[in-house]
Amino acid sequence: MPRKLKVTITLLLAVATGLQGCSLRKSKEFQFDPDFSHYQGAATEIADPEVETVGYEEIASTRAPLTLQDDAPPDFWDLTLDEAIQTALAHSQVMRDLGAMVLQSPDNMRTLYDPAIEETDPRFGVEAALSAFDTSFESQIFFENNDRALNNRFFGGGTRILKQDLHSYRAQLSKRAATGGEFTIRKIIGYDANNQPGNDDPNKPWTVQFEGEFRQPLMQGAGVDFNRIAGPDGRPGAMNGVLLARINTDIGVADFEIAVRNLVNDVENAYWELYFAYRDLDSKIAARDRALETWRSINALFVTNRRGGEAEKEAQAREQYYRLEEEVQNALAGRPSDNVRTNSLRGAGGVQLSERRLRRLMGIAPSDGRLIRPAQEPVMARVLFDWDELLVEALNRRAELRRQKWKVKRRELELAASRNFLLPSVDAVGRYRLRGLGHDLLNSSRQDGQFDNAFQDLTTGDFQEWQLGLEVQMPVGYRQGHASVRNAELQLSRERAILEEQEKQVVHELTDAVAEVDRAYALSQTSYNRRVAAKQHLDALASVYQDADESEKTRLLDLLLDAQRRLADAETTYYRGLLDYSMAIKNVHLQKGSLLDYNEVYLSEGPWPGKAHYDAARLDESRRKSPRLLNYILSWPLPISRGPVEQRIMSSDSSDVSPAPPPAASVQPVPDPPAATGGNDAAATGVLRNAAFDPTRVESAPFTQAP
């Protein structure tokens, strides 16, 4: 059997054996499972990945939440707003929100790592763009052994049976310059030992070449600015230069700043929501206790069957007490509501629910046996803003506008680079080469003269070659180039239109925020006067009711119960007005982009190495001294940035009144009311009383009662 036929049959048998091995066949281990039901069941099961969770033990050891059934009063954690913000930022690797977006849409969440991830993106990051200019080393080594019969002696160099040992060694360093040029240093070593009759005696199979090569674009792809925008391998619609990569990083930093600002805003909102929950609870406790005293007095008349203690009067007083007790329980525990971001006071959370929301935003355990209690009072002094300064500051400091301006700048750079693709591709190419030929490669022991060894022959410089030329390539019509420019123009127009609309929206939101400050302050004064009047009305009516006879008490009962409800509503409205005013001031800073500064939170990028500062200074000096050689193709738009963002408010106008730091709250428990007859007190009364604030805490508010 011929040798080639044996090899072919062997290969076919090997392929057939492999295919049979890959087929699904029954084995002895599964002879009782002929339908492979075990595999089918395992394939359809939902698997649980084995992942180590950081902090799982701490999370799993969370204590049960505080509820209405807890009789023992909790320990209070007096917390200031600054401490709440500081704790939230210290525990926020993920920028939290109240909408549980981390579960519903985790890919859209902002984290502490996002700016660094954007910076180090291996495709579109700054380092990825700079890597296109890195020096590249390439090396190739090939060995061949040729044994062939030739039909023509001419092609075999005088022989029909060519036997040849062929080696090829190649190494080079190439560097892409910022001007678009590419420079290469290359070494090539060849070995060709064959039986051609025309070879010298002794044979000289070794050749050595050392060459330098450059390719410099003169029109399309030329220039420092173009290569920093589009990159050396930039194409229409696919640009990834270092400037665009840096702008992407700046956009990521702006997104991160927005996320931090939203977190601080949510923490402050949650803090004042908890403050209002305590004040609302305090008002409802006081109203409930007054209703309880009224019910007790009427119940005493009802038990003794005296006038004024009629059954309907006793039931009316009892109904008022239980209604207010229901409001107390809701004010303590809170009712579930939609967790959405809002910049206005909702005031429907309750103490325990609002406290858990604040804990969620602060990144701490939802329950640790303590109850957070705000230790900071809202702003009560009047704050005046200068509209002209607010308008300028909002248009310059809003992070959303800065992010959109970076997008506009990116589109401007892309448009400028796209116009470069309307130029023909004209490349200047040059090459210079030294050659060497020899019997040996190095350290030959022969002394045969000129071609003894290849490297020695190379260093003599007897064989030199050079090449210069131009390569021109241009599409007829530039269809893709014109489409790229038109698309870049439309993209730029779109981003500019969005920027203009965003500026209009910012002005509208700032207008609403400033108007809300004035409204909230005026309503705070009005609600304070209403509270004073309601208190005086109840005191006067209670005094009359106390001194009235039994028949008169029957007539005054409805008025007394109504006055108690009015005072409770007035106190709740008063505290809501105070917090509306504080949140209105906060919203002005939110709309004009200074909320982080208002809360003394500042962002900064990581430090640059000293080499970067040195290179920047040297590059700036060289630009001032030398002309822009090979940078004439693109000269617009520059500069890229106006400099660092001013984060601190520098106001020289003394008329701008800033709010003074509010004093710390004075927290004292309310004295226990008299014991109820018949077990009518709520089980959580002890918790409620200890959670209440000092009733004299804001009586010194700088509001005047209207005449």
Q: What can you tell me about this protein's structure?
A:
- By secondary structure, the protein is of the alpha+beta class.
- The protein has a domain at 81-103 and 249-387 and 503-603 and 647-691: Outer membrane efflux proteins (OEP).
- The chain contains 19 helices and 8 strands.
- The strands form 2 sheets. Strands 2-3-4-5-7-8 form a 6-stranded antiparallel beta sheet. The protein has a two-stranded parallel ribbon with strand order 1-6.
- It is elongated, with a radius of gyration of 42 Å.
- The protein starts with a helix and ends in a 16-residue tail after the last helix.
CATH architecture of the domain at 81-103 and 249-387 and 503-603 and 647-691: Up-down Bundle
- Number of helical elements: 19
The CATH C-level name of the domain at 81-103 and 249-387 and 503-603 and 647-691 is Mainly Alpha
Radius of gyration from the alpha-carbon trace, in angstroms? 42 Å
What percent strand?
A: 5-15%
Report, as a whole number of angstroms, the end-to-end distance.
125 Å
- Main β-sheet description: 6 strands, antiparallel
Instruction: Pick out the low-confidence regions.
Output: 18-30, 650-707
- Number of distinct beta strands: 8
User: Strands across the major sheet, in which order?
Assistant: 2-3-4-5-7-8
* Quaternary structure type: single chain
Quick one: overall form?
A: elongated
In which range does the helix fraction lie? 40-55%
Order of helices and strands: HHHEHHHHEEEEHHHHEHHEHEHHHHH
CATH topology of the domain at 81-103 and 249-387 and 503-603 and 647-691: Outer membrane efflux proteins (OEP)
Average of pLDDT = 80
What structural class is derived from the secondary structure elements?
A: alpha+beta
